[in-house]
Amino acid sequence: MLKVHIIAHGDRKDEIISRLHELGLMQIKDLKEKLETPSWAKILREEEVPGTSELDHQIAGVRYAIDFVSRFETTTQNLIESFFSPKFLVNEQEYEDAIKNFDFNLIDKCRELDAELTHLKNEEAHLYTLYEELLPWESLEIPLEELETPHTVTTLGIIPVENGGLLHTIADDFPCTHFITVTETDKEKFVAALHLKSESEEISKRLRAVEFSPVSFDGLTGYVVNQLEHLLKSIEETRKKREKVEEKCTELLKELLPLMIMHDHLTNMKAKKEVKENFVRTDRAFVVEGWVPRKDESALRDGLSHIREVEILIEEPAEDEDVPVELRNTGRVIRPFELVTRIYGLPHYREIDPTLSLAPFFIVFFGLCLSDVFYGILLIVLSFFALKKVKMGPDGDLLFKLLIIAGGVTVVCGFFLGGWFGNLTEYAPGQLAVLETVRQKLTLINPIENPLGMLAIVLLMGIVHVWFGILIKMYMTIRDGYYLDAVFDQGFWLLLIPFGTLMVLKTMFEVDIPAYTAIQYVVIACLVGLVLTQGRHQKAGNIIVSLFMKLFVGLLSIYSIFGYLGDVLSYSRVLALGLATGAIAIVFNNILSMIAGLPYIGLIIAIILFPVLHLFNLIINALGAFIHPGRLQYVEFFTKFLEGGGEDFRPFQFDSKYIKVREYKGKGG
Amino acid sequence: MEITSGLVLAILGAALSAGLAGTGSSLGVGIAGQAAAGVTTEDPTKFGKLLVLQALPGTQGIYGFIGAFFVLNMTGMLGGNPIPLTIDQGWQICNACLPIAIAGLFSGIYQGKVSASGCGAVAKRPETMGKAVILAAMVETYAILGLLATILLLLGIPL
After folding, report:
1. I need a labelling partner for A226 at 20 to 30 A (CA). Which of A158, A397, A440, A475 fits?
2. What is the pTM of this model?
3. DSSP assignment letter at A635
4. How many helices (H) and strands (E) does chain B have?
5. Which residue in the set B126, B138, B155 is minimally distant from A451, CB to CB?
6. Where would I find the beta strands (DSSP E) of A350-395?
7. Which residues of A255-270 are buried (b: 16+ CB within 10 A; e: fewer)?
8. Rounded CA gap, A434 and A488, in Å?
């Protein structure tokens, strides 16, 4: 990264911003903090930023329209696509056309349709409720407007079935009262109570006492039967109206892409306005400061060369500055591994990019976790298919490229560990039985028969991995010129770990180690070295206290052995995951062979089930085979040399949510 | 075929291994699933990511199953010719199953809780997906160690 200052005349501002936006090479830094220094504040002041409220309003409108229109989309993204939320690819011509022909009335149209739709939906719901309420009264033989006459009233109401008998007592007390049961369900009776107007008050009191709950249909006239028919018709009409509106909305789907283009266009326009917040200015000139990758320096200069009255100053970043980080692994094989690094986060600018060093370990651990020839082949085929057929963002492409490499390593590990769809070859009939012999011959170690041997192998790999991490730290220390620290802090451990391992092998497992006495001396020398040097930063006023503290901290540092021991034991997960894949495959094969033994259809069912079961096993274990080797990098490996916390390099460029413009102004979007 | 008391104890061990670890997983997957479903209602496009997070606490069940598989394999029950185990041998096998049974049960539940929080993280910032997965995978370490202990113990039992 290099630090760039661009100083230019105020008239050139918009031109320069547009050009920088097109180039997309430079990350722009906020300069306002400079104004806090009085000497700068004397000559510089804040750049005036034009208001963006109109743009905000337009963006909000377009976003609303996109949300509204996408409600009518019937096709949904498939699972893999939704995982990566890909962008729509448009070419430059389509982009320009969409912007030129965009009509903001579209948004108002969406609003109108939305309102109409809501209204019709409410209307429909309302009519339907009324219909349901009216339905029990279908056989009522009194027109609704005649429920109330000059002297009588008919109250419609619902009464629990068990209270139905009590109505008689009311009829007995008020002779001019008549009850008609219109319908009856298991729980309720729908009753019309005819009575004199003059007796209304007492009767309604009595009715309440028997839990008679009155209903009323104000405003409706005629017979209920006719009303119901009428309502059905209205519902149907409203539904048709709604469908027509919905059709209109569905037609708008063709405007979705232009809307998305417009959205991204507007947000970029806003970004171009807002970027000025980071500038500072004098009376006539203005200053932009930012970062550019070293390799793009000349491209930036060339890109701005045709603009007059511009001064571009490029310098090395200062020691203590926070420089953004861009991972740069150009190799086609290595680049997918950036994904693993990025899940953890970026390294700090002055640390090294761990991608290259984690790649071999990650991929071998992945292979050992899955360790099946055919699962590897399947993984390659499926990933290849996904790469060709599924739309994915750049991250998705990287992931499947990584899985193709991982599949290849899995095949190799499968040969060594004897996984061929688990133990499928054991069931091979007739001529194919030779495959089983081949499998046995190729198998170096079978983790299910010899888990201890496999455990030793993965722990040994763990020791190498941890050791390598310390080696990288040593390289970084030497690179920064701290030679003694490199020897004291890393050198001793680099010797202690391998030789200590040999000592453990000798004492605990009675392995024959040549030149054992020499090894013992090296280990003792390293331990003494650690005790003497690790406390060297301790300071105290009194020389005796100081010496004591140095020694004490040095002794304490030996305790790190247990830390390293824990780190190495953590690699046993590779064995466990490998066992998981193998054991489940074996059980599936066992079950399948039992099913295949059933008469008649057994074989067919087994053949249908075979891909389902093994695909399930592959997916479940591939997930684990990615996550756990990943964790081994982050927790066991990175901690030896990496602090992380690097800030992503975000150049000022065309940034989009929905679309990707192919060859956007000669720059890849 | 003779069923001895020893064999009964070995079956108990296999059952505990698959059963308890499976319980842990189902609780964990359940907890994570509830959170995932909540996020899905807000943003259905995140379903793929959430599915991965929900699946994470499912491995304990698999590890428990592998423990049971090793027991069935070494006692010959898988092939239909069980070895007549003595009561001592039966107890040894049963006890050897406890590490994955217990570690699977509890780590499954807690991994489910971390996954559920991960769903929350993904809801707000989808780019934290990888980190959420790794955080949940940290819990799984102890189920893996439990499985290893079970397997190593089983291998040490003379039959």
Report:
1. A158
2. 0.78
3. I
4. 6, 0
5. B155
6. none
7. bbebbbbbbbbbbeee
8. 57
Q: What are phi and psi of A418, to 5 degrees?
A: 70, 40
d(CA B116, CA A94): 43
Amino acid identity at A394: P
Dihedrals phi, psi of A4, to nearest 5 degrees: -120, 135
B131/A343 Cβ within 8 A: yes
Token output for A153: 């009233």
Phi, psi of A588 (to 5 degrees): -60, -45
* CB B87 within 8 Å of CB B6: yes
A325 exposure class (CB count in 10 Å sphere: 0-12, 13-18, 19+): buried
**Whether the Cβ atoms of residue A239 and residue A245 lie closer than 8 Å to each other:** no
End-to-end Cα spacing for chain A: 21
Paired with A646 in beta bridges are A346
Q: Estimate to the nearest angstrom the gap between the alpha carbon of A546 and the chain centroid.
A: 52
**Polymer length in residues for chain A:** 669
Count the neighbouring beta carbons within 10 Å of the beta carbon of residue A165.
Answer: 9
Q: Burial letters for A336-347: b for 16+ Cβ neighbours within 10 Å, e otherwise? A: bbbbbbbbbbbb
- Chain B neighbors of A343, CB-CB under 8 A: 130-131, 133-134
Spatial contact of A419 and A583, defined as CB atoms under 8 Å apart: no
Q: Compute the distance between CA of residue A590 and CA of residue A570 in angstroms, rounded to an integer.
A: 31
Q: Which residues of B touch A658 (CB under 8 A)?
A: none
Chain A CB contacts of B148 under 8 Å are 455, 572, 575-576
d(CA B32, CA B115): 5
Residue A550 tokens read as: 């140095």
Q: d(Cα A8, Cα A5) in Å, to the nearest integer?
A: 10
Q: Is A315 helix (H, G, I), strand (E, B) or coil?
A: strand
C-alpha angle A101-A107-A113 in degrees, rounded to nearest 5: 125
Distance of CA A667 to the CA centre of its chain: 27
**CA–CA distance from A360 to each of A474, A633, B97 (Å)?**
20, 11, 35
Fill in the DSSP letter of residue A634: I
Residue A610 has pLDDT above 60, yes or no: yes
Query: CB–CB of A584 and B58 under 8 A?
Result: no
Q: What is the 3-state secondary structure (H, E, C) of A551-614?
A: HHHHHHHCCHHHHHHHHHHCCHHHHHHHHHHHHHHHHHHHHHHHHHCCCCCHHHHHHHHHHHHH
Q: How far is CA A426 from its chain centroid?
A: 41
Reported ipTM: 0.80
Structure tokens at A99: 């912007």
pLDDT mean by block of 10 residues, chain B; 159 residues: 86 96 96 94 82 90 90 85 91 96 96 95 87 89 91 88
Q: Where are the alpha helices (DSSP H) in B43-97?
A: 47-55, 59-74, 87-96
Please classify residue B131 by burial: count the beta carbons closer than 10 Å to its beta carbon, then call 0-12 exposed, 13-18 middle and 19+ buried.
Answer: middle
Burial tier of A37 (Cβ tally within 10 Å: 0-12, 13-18, 19+): exposed
Instruction: Give contacts of B144 with chain A, Cβ < 8 Å.
Output: 572-573, 576-577, 628
pLDDT at A669 over 60: no
- Can you read off the two tokens belonging to residue A389? 């057929």
Asked if A631 and B145 come within 8 Å (Cβ–Cβ), the reply is no
**Two structure tokens written together for A270:** 């806003």
Percentage of chain B with pLDDT > 70?
99
Residues A94-147 pLDDT 10s: 888 888 888 888 889 999 999 999 999 999 999 999 898 888 888 888 888 888
Which chain B residue has the Cα nearest residue A621? Answer: B59
CA B148: distance to chain centroid?
12
Element at A69 (helix H, strand E): helix A53-70
Residue of A nearest to B53 (CA): A623
Residue A154 pairs in a beta bridge with: A194
- Which residue's entry shows tokens 């057994």? A602
Q: Is A268:A21 a contact under the CB 8 Å cutoff?
A: yes
Cβ neighbours for A456, distance < 8 A, ≥ 6 positions apart: none
**What single-letter amino acid sits at A362?**
F
